[in-house]
Design a protein that fits this description.
The strands form six sheets. This protein has a seven-stranded mixed sheet, sandwiched between helices. A five-stranded antiparallel sheet has the order 12-20-21-13-22. It contains 21 helices and 22 strands. It is globular and about 70 Å long. The protein has 722 residues and is of the alpha+beta class.
Length: 722
């Protein structure tokens, strides 16, 4: 069917009128460029426009458009930013830090790199010319014959390519990383295959820095570019003189080559250095920066368990080209891996909130590193005694006996005596897992940026982040729900330390809060906002590539989630890695000492980094647990339904049917109710985790076991290590 000429002319006239009135917005990519050029987060722009972050994300992705007053306000913002940040060459790279100054937080963790003192004033970020790449000594070469031969291997899984990668940075034409195989083929992102002639580790490092064209641009204008990553297959490791496997009594990811190993000697003789974590599954090899350019290469050795199967399911066993595809997509959407997903999650925080920025010394006129507002700075900060762990020097040296903050995820099972006959007769128990619940909790989360101050008998203020000693034992709540104040869901038995969100929720429930003492922070900020926005976008975009979008109906969503791993194993692995990055990154904020030689009261390497912040970890978990209880409470009020168990971000409900649609509340139009558990791909919404019979769940409860744990088969804690 075609429109009449009059209708076509009318439509064209309307479009021209919209252009004349200035209501046509720039394209989605330009909207993102303008916001990022100004250093604005999605949360900040959304708050200014009076909308939610998902709405702004949809505008920037071209999936939706603003209307009415918000259209005019958004256009005004974009016009103003376009005037200040016209399209042009990419910003100039600032002088990069010397890898020799890197101090890893632990023997198994990637090092943190402080920014050096620039000696020349950097040009304005939006006007500086792009730093030219180092001319390669030999051009990168595609080798179609090798690609065809390897593609014929039966072990290679079929991979659907995701969204086309962005235009590469001219300094890094071959992408962020490559997977090196034993025949010298280095498989990059987008099907690129490079010839790598290196037969020793020093030769590989030289080739990577001078010829490969690998690297990843910085995520923040005050940050630094990511160093190139070379992933070694088992045969590549053997070719370079490394053992195919690391053997020993400890976990393989904790093992290191001895200092007298021939490869370690080769590296040192060539005037390269290793970080304090040594030559393990994620060795980092560097020299001091020269002419403002970093000389640092990150390696990952697949056969040494560099990629944890839980975080990277099946990736280590893929064909090298497919491994490069998965890791490259993660590097593009999240960050170039620098270690485990926990390490990468922590590094992402620093990459998005660099501790320093170039500032001009008014006395000398030279440019020096200055504090970057909103960051955690460059110096480590000791926690308040109740925020620390029992082995921390703050606790041991002070003789602290006042108790500790116990903000952990739920691990609760409902007392069997509170089950009704009607509930016991229901045939199914259905598990709901909240999508990246801890990521959702980090959104617009205000945390402390300065050292804690001690107060006695303070007046509670829900806007001040910190740790409060209060007695909530008198609060009587429904025993069919877990207590929101304790991780095991039991009623508090006396005064205890709580994070601000926990006490604020008690106040919201109508109870008087009278803290006895508190450790509070005067300087505050939404430190995790860029981290949340970045990971949320990566998570939602990866789900969308798998066909799981926010506009799916309940049955469509469940069907898509059920088959997404089989639909594209590569994208499913990226999704798993993103989720592991969230939990691992939060867990790393309170990394415990590792190794048998540690003695209580000694400082361990993780304490020397500014991101060792157990109070921020507690704030995220407290908010996530409160959010979970709020949904549980709303479900009970709205439907009269009570859970059987809760483990971390998974809750189990009795159900008359085998799926969540059989018990989740809907309105008369069939739409899910707000304020309770709803199905969806957005962080914080629920998906089906597992289905079992009700009698099975009751039997576990009578044994004192948590049905949620047996549905998920996972761990209730946020990983604090590798």
């Amino acid at each position: 069917m075609t429109n009449q000429p009059e209708e076509l002319f009318t439509a064209i006239d309307s479009l021209l009128a919209a252009v004349d009135e200035g209501t046509v917005l720039p394209g989605p990519a330009e909207r993102v460029r303008l916001r990022e050029a100004a250093g604005l987060t999605q949360a900040a722009v959304a708050q200014a426009l009076g909308v939610r972050v998902p709405s702004l994300t949809a505008w920037e992705a071209g999936r939706a458009e603003p209307k009415g007053e918000r259209l005019e306000a958004y256009r005004r913002l974009l016009d103003g930013l376009a005037h200040r940040y016209p399209a042009g060459p990419s910003p100039a790279a600032q002088p990069l830090p010397d890898p020799a100054e890197e101090t890893p937080a632990s023997p198994t963790e990637a090092p943190a790199s402080p920014e050096p003192s620039p000696t020349e004033p950097p040009p304005p970020a939006r006007q500086g010319p792009t730093e030219p790449p180092v001319p390669p000594s030999r051009p990168a070469v595609r080798t179609p014959s090798r690609t065809a031969a390897r593609s014929a291997a039966p072990s290679r899984p079929a991979v659907r390519k995701a969204t086309a990668p962005p235009v590469p940075d001219p300094r890094f034409p071959n992408g962020p990383l490559a997977v090196l195989d034993g025949d010298g083929s280095a498989y990059g992102v987008g099907g690129i295959v490079l010839d790598c002639p290196a037969t020793t580790v020093p030769e590989l490092v030289e080739w990577t820095l001078t010829t490969s064209g690998l690297g990843n641009p910085k995520l923040n204008r005050h940050g630094k570019d990511s160093d190139p990553l070379i992933v070694l297959t088992a045969s590549a490791a053997v070719r370079l003189g490394l053992p195919e496997r690391l053997e020993g009594h400890e976990q393989r990811r904790s093992l290191r080559l001895p200092q007298d190993h021939p490869v370690v000697k080769q590296v040192l003789r060539a005037k390269w250095q290793l970080t304090r974590r040594g030559f393990g599954p994620w060795p980092r090899i560097y020299r001091k920066a020269a002419a403002g350019r970093r000389q640092c290469v990150q390696l990952a050795i697949l056969s040494w368990d560099a990629l944890d199967e839980r975080s990277w399911p099946g990736v280590a066993d893929m064909h090298p080209a497919d491994t490069a595809h998965v890791l490259g997509l993660y590097a593009t959407r999240v960050i170039t891996p620098r270690g485990s997903t926990a390490v990468s999650g922590l590094e992402l925080m620093t990459a998005l909130r660099p501790p320093t920025k170039a500032t001009q010394d008014p006395a000398t006129g030279t440019w020096v590193p200055g504090h970057n507002p909103g960051s955690l700075g460059t110096e480590p900060m000791d926690p308040a005694p109740p925020e620390a762990t029992p082995e921390h020097p703050v606790v041991v040296n002070s003789g602290w006996k006042g108790g500790f903050l116990d903000e952990e995820a739920y691990q609760w099972v409902r007392p069997v005596g509170t089950l009704t006959d009607e509930e016991c007769m229901l045939p199914f128990a259905v598990g709901l897992d909240l999508n990246t619940a801890f990521l959702a909790a980090s959104a617009r989360l205000v945390v402390g940026l300065s050292a804690p101050d001690h107060f006695h008998r303070p007046t509670f203020n829900p806007r001040i982040p910190g740790s409060w000693l209060a007695d909530l034992s008198a609060i009587d709540l429904d025993p069919r729900l877990p207590s929101p104040f304790t991780p095991d869901g039991t009623r508090p038995d006396g005064p205890a330390w709580y994070q601000t969100h926990t006490l604020a929720y008690a106040q919201q429930l109508g109870h008087h809060v009278a803290p006895i003492e508190a450790y509070l922070r005067r300087e505050t900020g939404a430190y995790l906002d860029p981290w949340h926005d970045h990971l949320r976008t990566a998570y939602v975009d990866t789900l969308a590539d798998l066909g799981i979008t926010q506009d799916l109906t309940g049955p469509e969503f469940l069907a898509a989630m059920e088959h997404h791993k089989q639909r594209d194993p590569a994208l499913a692995a990226v999704l798993a890695a993103i989720k592991a990055t969230v939990k691992g990154g939060i867990g790393k904020l309170r990394e415990r000492p590792q190794g048998r030689s540690y003695k209580q009261g000694e400082r361990w390497p993780a304490l020397e980094r500014p991101t060792w912040r157990p109070d921020i970890r507690a704030a995220v978990i407290s908010k996530a647990r409160v959010n979970m209880h709020r949904k549980l409470n709303n479900m009970a009020k709205l439907t009269g339904q009570y859970p059987l168990a809760v483990l971390s971000d998974c809750v189990v409900y009795p159900s008359p049917g085998a799926g969540p649609l059989d018990f989740l509340p809907h309105d008369a139009d069939g739409k899910p109710r707000t304020g309770v558990f709803r199905l969806g791909s957005t962080p914080g919404l629920a998906k089906l985790e597992g289905v079992q019979t009700m009698l099975w769940a009751v039997d576990l409860m009578e044994q004192g076991l948590n049905p949620a744990r047996h549905i998920k088969g996972g761990d209730a804690t946020l990983d604090e290590g590798e």
